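User: I'm putting together a teaching handout on how multi-component assemblies are represented. Below are the sequence lines for each component of a complex, exactly as they appear in our records. Could you produce the 3D structure of the whole assembly as structure tokens, so the students can see both representations side by side? Please keep the chain order the same as the input.
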Amino acid sequence: QVQLVQSGAEVKQPGASVRVSCKASGYTFSAYNRHIHWVRQAPGQGLEWMGWINPNTGGTKYAQKFQGRVTMTRDTSISTAYMDLSRLISDDTAIYYCVREVSGFDSWGQGTLVTVSS
Amino acid sequence: DIQMTQSPSSLSASVGDRVSITCRASQSIGTWLAWYQQKPGKAPNLLIYTASNLESGVSSRFSGSGFGTEFTLTISSLQPDDFATYYCQHYNSFPYTFGQGTKLEIK
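Assistant: Of course. Below is the structure of the complete assembly, with chains in the same order as your input.
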């Protein structure tokens, strides 16, 4: 079965950077039209789309809000996607999810809590 | 950017009730719409894709309809497990955006 397993919780100081990883299994990671997205959810809030990576080509698209601060990459040899977010502020405290898109977001990682606090 | 607006924001209902949640897009998205269910402490779960297609393994009590700018999620007969928060999302073009959510509570 399809699984996305994310890295563990992080606590970061304001101004720092964080990397969250997402290891895929149960399907061909770089298959055509199996894109990976990143979505975050602040405490008690709704879902916010951050961006997308095509594991096949490495192509990316980011939400305007995160342009210049977020970088999404992948390593096809280990079926893993990464999301780097820099210049963290307290409002970046959230659960970060990686998600596979087939038609809609059909498989979600378990989520990674990133806490930004001094 | 396409804005997604759900209504109501919260809803109280009883087991066995039929309920509907509406999602409106700020411009036409065809049928590029999905619905998700989220329970506390869990990742969202895909219910409906391309507006009306039921995801594999999801109860047939859930159905979706709509085209263009107005969409509806209907739960035919509420079960205790259905009390959760529901989100719509368009995937017509970047950036994909979600509705603000509808919290379904037990009356």
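A couple of points students might notice: The longest strand of chain B covers residues 19-25. Chain B has a mean pLDDT of 97.
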